[in-house]
């Protein structure tokens, strides 16, 4: 089978498209013929050696894939060959055939496409966990979303509206802001005068919940714009700069800075993760969430796609098609 291989930590462009041995299911494993593979920002961090974990080299990147099961191990009881599924992994998904433990596999309803199934894992899973478990977002609260035209940002817009929030999207171009509005944001602003725009849109009250996958200078502007009892969610650092928090701001403004590490959540709280995914699948089946699949690329083009994503030149969700 063909797969994308990371042979050394470093440039995303060094990823190789290689022939690899056919995977074989162990006792409690399944092998999935991938129909769609999700591309996520952390994939690029992992390849560069900049993520929280470092797999043993060489490894296949990729956190999510959807398709039909080809084979199962003797100890697998929940699935059988032919089942439609989506898998959630630390890595290993950029391949024509994906090996996964039964515990990492979820059934995919017939009315949810393979591409949508991929988008519901990392991107929607992160945003859902952030807003539901970490922020406890309440109806009527104001939710600010940085990087609002990316996959997690769009997910946060849709989920925030389902949860009853007023959503202010922040994005760097007119095209991105238009997409955010189309996906349900109540307002869309840029980064040039973030504090001033937040003050204007909230009548000086500030933000109840801030969703920040960007970091950098925007983080400080948002920290200075939080409302009393606000929650500033740390999602990631797409700007390339990990900011520092002036903790006196948290003290005098009475807000909490809350870390969101979805990958750890999936392993430390598997029952909550399963419940979240069931809820997301239900929303997708009803059309309440509709991931923005902006690009469908070939598996061999993974390096180019990831490079553009890390240059912040992409919109929405990108999937690879083996």
From TrEMBL:
Signal peptide: none annotated. Residues 10-320 form the Enoyl reductase (ER) domain. InterPro entries: ADH-like_C, ADH-like_N, ER, GroES-like_sf, NAD(P)-bd_dom_sf, Zn-ADH-like_protein. This is NADPH:quinone oxidoreductase family protein. It comes from the Bacteria. It comes from Jiella mangrovi. SUPFAM superfamilies: GroES-like, NAD(P)-binding Rossmann-fold domains. The lineage of its organism: Bacteria, Pseudomonadati, Pseudomonadota, Alphaproteobacteria, Hyphomicrobiales. Pfam families: ADH_N, ADH_zinc_N.
């Amino acid at each position: 089978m063909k797969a994308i291989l990371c042979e050394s930590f470093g440039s995303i462009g060094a990823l190789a498209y290689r022939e690899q041995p056919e995977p074989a299911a162990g006792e409690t494993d399944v092998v999935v013929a991938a129909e769609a593979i999700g591309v996520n920002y952390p994939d690029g961090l992992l390849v560069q050696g900049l993520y929280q974990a470092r797999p043993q080299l060489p490894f296949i990147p990729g956190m999510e894939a959807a398709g039909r099961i080809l084979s199962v191990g003797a100890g697998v009881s929940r699935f059988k060959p032919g089942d439609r599924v989506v898998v959630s992994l630390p890595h290993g998904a950029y391949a024509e055939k994906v090996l996964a433990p039964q515990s990492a596999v979820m059934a995919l309803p017939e009315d949810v496409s393979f591409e949508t199934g991929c988008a519901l894992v990392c991107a929607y899973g992160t945003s859902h966990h952030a807003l539901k478990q970490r922020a406890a977002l309440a109806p009527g609260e104001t939710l600010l979303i940085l990087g609002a035209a990316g996959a997690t940002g769009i997910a946060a817009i849709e989920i925030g509206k389902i949860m009853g929030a007023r959503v202010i999207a922040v994005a760097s171009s007119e095209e991105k802001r238009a997409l955010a509005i189309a996906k349900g944001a109540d307002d869309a602003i840029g980064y040039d005068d973030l504090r001033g725009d937040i003050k204007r849109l909230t009548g000086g009250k500030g933000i109840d919940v801030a969703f920040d996958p960007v970091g950098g200078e925007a983080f400080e502007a948002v920290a200075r714009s939080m409302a009393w009892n606000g929650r500033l969610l740390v999602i990631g650092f797409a700007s390339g700069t990990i900011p520092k928090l002036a903790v006196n701001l948290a003290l005098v403004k009475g807000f909490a800075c809350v870390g969101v590490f979805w990958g750890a959540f999936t392993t430390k709280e598997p029952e909550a993760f399963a419940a979240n995914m069931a809820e997301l699948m239900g929303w997708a089946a009803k059309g309440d969430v509709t991931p923005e699949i902006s690009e469908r690329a070939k598996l061999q083009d993974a390096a180019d796609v990831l490079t553009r994503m890390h240059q912040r030149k992409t919109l929405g969700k990108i999937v690879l098609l083996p």
